């Protein structure tokens, strides 16, 4: 049976003009800055005007450890929002903006899938309202002013060997991970080793998403540490007199973007930090705005509960004072069978035994939510190849564990396919009130916070530190940043730091090889295993299939 592609489904839809969507939330035309007919930025004055309005209920969508079989976290988020709307509830969705790098690399798009998408899908995946470009420019402006200061006599006495501030671009480009700059003679600048990260890994992306208002953004930009001086003291963006101009570059990027789903559900799409190398959730401003405007807000955090959700709960919620009412953990029977050892080419064969083995991965992610005081609801994306025997086994195992579970068919049916899940979420919120709490107190030593995450969330037996990591953590503590939360950069493909280890591993250690402070964002980054902050393109990039057809329609975008 031939299915329409995601982009074909999106192009066949008939979106409402964005001013009508905004009215569903009580927003007026004056609250919007239009970017065409179907997308708009929302004025920050909305938050000020609605400060006394009570918040809606926040629903976090996370997932099991990703596999090549796919899980559908964004699709579930969008479909669940549409299901609430079909049930007559006041609802808004709050998700991240896609990065161009993965769109041209492996994913080919990141706005949901099937009949559970945010639209205009092509615009959201390709440039959108220019936020990523503004973040890239602000980041690279700081890099340019840093190198200019070195060239102009180094008045801040910067130690060139201590510089941590690279440049960024919104593209998967492995050739730029490590480079030498300043070549070309005396007028070419001061030669030194540097490199590029992808824009989603930029601290500017992280701090924009963690800012609570424009003043907070300016404060965070000023606090960004780019290097140390020769006395070992931090050199900041404020020292370089760059933060004011950076804030001006970001004057529009800080405003949330409003779009809609295929079914017209209001959707805030704003910010895009990766969950494996950054904190992995949309902006605080967009989430807060959604909570003031709707009774239910469905949001997601990148990759599994060990990455985006852990950081959402311990960084974003702590910063913004948010408390989720419920957590949805997304899985597929196909993916659970892969965690049970089944190869991708054999997933269409019914295998309840492999499902029972692989479901241990799901249990760990549910336990991670419970460790934060949240009641997990399991959402299973249904595939046509799932056998009745496998579905029966899944329900049997979930009942034994006491976890509520619902099959979701939002990819094929939109909101209608998520009504069972939406009802289960509302029932869980009603009968099992959230007792949300962060995983660790901030006044604990950095190593103790790291080990709490590793042991409680990953299931590790301990943590090993390289000599470089030991040195960096001691330095970060000495500089006065030891009371910040931890943002772990780790592979998304395993609970361990080895991407090849599937299922629910036990008796393993996590290796921390490096660390740095992101003082503007307000966290300490640790690098585990071989995780990189600049991805590369695959052997066959998705970009090879993206083009126009004879009628001028975009094809190949997912």
Account of the 3D structure:
The strands form six sheets. Strands 1, 2, 3, 4, 5, 6, 13, 14, 15, 16, 17 and 18 form a twelve-stranded mixed sheet that branches. Strands 19-21-22-20 form a four-stranded mixed sheet. Strands 7-10 form a two-stranded parallel ribbon. It has 558 residues and is an alpha/beta fold. The model has no long low-confidence stretch (mean pLDDT 95). It is globular. The chain is built from 19 helices and 24 strands. Helix 7 runs antiparallel to helix 10 (243-249) and helix 13 crosses helix 14 (352-370). Strand 1 and strand 2 (40-42) form a beta hairpin. The two termini are 18 Å apart. Helix content is 35%, strand content 18%.
Mean pLDDT: 95
Strand content: 15-25%
Rg from alpha-carbon coordinates: 23 Å
Count, helices? 19
Distance between the termini: 18 Å
Low-pLDDT residue spans: none
What share of residues is helical?
25-40%
Give the overall shape.
globular
Characterize the largest beta sheet: strand count, sense, and whether it forms a barrel.
12 strands, mixed
| Class based on secondary structure composition and strand pairing | alpha/beta
* Count of DSSP strands: 24
Keywords:
single chain; 19 helices; alpha/beta; 4-stranded mixed sheet; 24 strands; 558 residues
Short recap of the structure:
This protein is of the alpha/beta class.
Please give the structural blueprint.
Blueprint: H1 6-12, H2 18-24, E1 32-34, E2 40-42, H3 45-49, E3 57-63, H4 73-86, E4 91-95, H5 100-104, E5 112-113, E6 116-119, H6 121-125, H7 131-151, E7 167-169, E8 179-181, E9 192-194, E10 196-198, H8 203-210, H9 214-223, E11 225-228, E12 234-236, H10 243-249, E13 257-261, E14 266-269, H11 284-293, E15 296-300, H12 305-320, E16 326-332, H13 333-339, H14 352-370, E17 376-381, H15 388-401, E18 405-408, H16 410-413, H17 419-431, H18 446-458, E19 462-465, H19 467-478, E20 486-489, E21 509-518, E22 523-528, E23 547-548, E24 554-555
Parallel strand pairs: 3-15, 3-16, 4-14, 4-15, 7-10, 16-17, 17-18, 19-21, 20-22
Antiparallel strand pairs: 1-2, 2-13, 5-6, 6-13, 8-9, 11-12, 13-14, 21-22, 23-24
């Amino acid at each position: 049976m031939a299915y329409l592609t995601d982009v074909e489904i999106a192009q066949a839809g008939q979106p409402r003009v964005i001013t009508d969507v905004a009215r569903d939330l009580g927003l007026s035309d004056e609250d919007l800055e239009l970017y065409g007919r179907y997308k708009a930025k929302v004025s920050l004055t909305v938050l000020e005007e609605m400060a006394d309005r009570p918040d809606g209920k926040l629903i976090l969508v996370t997932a099991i450890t990703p596999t090549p079989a796919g899980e559908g976290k964004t699709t579930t988020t969008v479909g669940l929002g549409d299901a609430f709307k079909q049930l007559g509830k006041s609802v808004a969705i709050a998700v991240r903006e896609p990065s161009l790098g993965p769109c041209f690399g492996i994913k080919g798009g990141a706005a949901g899938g099937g009949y559970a998408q945010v639209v205009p899908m092509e615009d959201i995946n390709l440039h959108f309202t220019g936020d990523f470009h503004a973040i890239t420019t602000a980041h690279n402006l700081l890099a340019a002013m840093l190198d200019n200061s070195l060239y102009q006599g180094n008045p801040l006495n910067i130690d060139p060997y201590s510089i941590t501030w690279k440049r960024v671009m919104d593209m998967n480009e492995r050739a730029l991970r490590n480079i030498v700059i300043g070549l070309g003679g005396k007028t070419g600048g001061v030669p030194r080793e540097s490199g590029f990260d992808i824009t989603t890994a930029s601290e500017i992306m992280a701090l924009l998403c963690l800012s609570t208002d424009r003043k907070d953004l300016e404060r965070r930009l000023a606090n960004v540490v780019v290097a140390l001086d020769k006395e070992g003291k931090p050199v900041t963006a404020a020292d370089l007199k760059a933060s004011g101009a950076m804030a001006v570059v970001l004057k529009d990027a800080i405003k949330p973007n409003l779009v809609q789903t295929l079914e017209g559900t209001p959707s805030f799409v704003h910010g895009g930090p990766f969950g494996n190398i950054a904190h992995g959730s949309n902006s605080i401003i967009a989430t807060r705005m959604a909570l003031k405007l709707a009774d239910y807000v469905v949001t997601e955090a990148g990759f599994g509960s060990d990455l985006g959700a852990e950081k959402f709960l311990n960084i974003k919620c702590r910063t913004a004072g948010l408390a989720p009412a419920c957590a949805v953990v997304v899985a597929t029977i196909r993916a659970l069978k892969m965690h049970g050892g089944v190869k991708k080419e054999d997933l269409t064969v019914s295998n309840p035994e492999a499902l029972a083995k692989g479901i241990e991965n799901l249990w760990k992610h549910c336990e991670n939510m419970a460790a934060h005081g949240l009641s997990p609801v399991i959402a299973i994306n249904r595939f046509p190849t799932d056998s009745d025997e496998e579905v029966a086994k899944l329900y049997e195992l979930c009942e034994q564990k006491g976890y509520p579970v619902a099959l979701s068919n939002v990819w094929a049916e939109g909101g209608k396919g998520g009504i069972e899940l939406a009802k289960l979420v509302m029932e869980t919120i009603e009968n099992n009130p959230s007792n949300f709490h962060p995983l660790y107190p901030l006044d604990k030593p950095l190593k103790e916070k790291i080990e709490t995450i590793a042991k409680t969330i990953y299931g590790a037996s301990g943590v090993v530190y390289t000599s470089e990591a030991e040195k960096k953590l001691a330095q970060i503590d000495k500089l006065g940043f030891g009371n910040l939360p931890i943002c772990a950069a780790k592979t998304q493909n395993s609970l361990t730091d080895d991407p090849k280890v599937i299922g629910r591993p036990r008796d393993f250690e996590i290796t921390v090889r490096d660390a740095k402070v992101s003082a503007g964002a307000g966290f300490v980054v640790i690098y585990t295993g071989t995780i990189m902050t600049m991805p590369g393109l695959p052997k066959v990039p998705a970009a090879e299939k993206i083009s126009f057809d004879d009628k001028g329609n975009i094809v190949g975008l997912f």
